[in-house]
């Protein structure tokens, strides 16, 4: 396993064989499922009279369709209730561990697996959700998959995949005050493009990443997919091990020492060969806001919306559509843009450290008149911890609503939706047209701290002014 990247090592360790198509049949160590992409997969199993091969390697929760205000059953949304019932029945039928609402362990699938220690270095992980790349923060290779692939993993615990190239993305130096992991990944996607990662796994490295907490690394890896990469990862180190030690599913005693020794061996070698290397200077990254309809259409908060001429010819049609849809004109400052809704949450930025940082800026301030602002913890555990620290009281005193755990307004498959052409300051990961529940709603992606700054001023604000 010398001269290899972590990606190469983990891939080779999980290779079952080479298929006639030339693809690798890859063993999947952990399969995470939720209520949106699994009902059809289970239906396909039943049609073929197939069993779940390794039910102990599958873990289920509910997140996308969960209401964050009234969680009484049956849900008001009939389709959401049907999805819930389908998942509950399938988990019971096939003996799958299920973290349901009120269990104390329910939450966004990409929050609950790390916090319970299910996600570990050197694993292959799959989930019917594009942001499965989040788990790469632990030195795992994690893929978002489609419904037919969910069926394949349930039935065979394997996937047919083509091996990816590996791009090393180094970020070096110290981030300036008011600049967060979210700004780093938005900056990377802005520079490399939303299609820049097609065919690649992204290895995130450099002194900036080494200094980040696990939750910050999860934010970075979460949005690998928005840059076109199939997965993103960070090599495991002491930060990783410290985070995992003592968690529910982490090895204990002698097995812990063996596991750490093993995990360390998976680190990309010093002489590993990469298909591409890109280097960024942390000092050049500012608080970043998206202005358009892709996560790559972002600018520093003190910049103006770019001119059409500044784009590559191939990107001009999307830019033109972004101006039209967002009702923005080139040359206009993004700072000062009025906002209607402010959302803190999602699998990108709904973790405890995100809520703590946001609360620092909310404390002693008040949400502006006419702005709807709410906070949605990513899991029931995070909610409980935040409440134990009094963060809920800080947000509520500032005029934010404090909600139950779920995906909420990240993609609005639940009651949390934009109305009309409202503008949302959002800590989530996608700003596509209609993403937040209204076909004309507009989304500006930013860090949780920046969302608070927008909420209290009623407009896009440079969070550094609140420091």
TrEMBL record:
Pathway: Amino-acid biosynthesis; L-leucine biosynthesis; L-leucine from 3-methyl-2-oxobutanoate: step 2/4. It comes from the Bacteria. InterPro entries: 3-IsopropMal_deHydase_lsu, Acnase/IPM_dHydase_lsu_aba_1/3, Acoase/IPM_deHydtase_lsu_aba, Aconitase_4Fe-4S_BS, Aconitase_4Fe-4S_dom, IPM_dehydratase_rel_enz, IPMI_cat. One of its GO terms (biological process) is L-leucine biosynthetic process. Binds 1 [4Fe-4S] cluster per subunit. It catalyses: (2R,3S)-3-isopropylmalate = (2S)-2-isopropylmalate. It is an enzyme of class 4 (lyase). Its cofactor is [4Fe-4S] cluster. Heterodimer of LeuC and LeuD. This is 3-isopropylmalate dehydratase large subunit. It comes from Lyngbya aestuarii BL J.
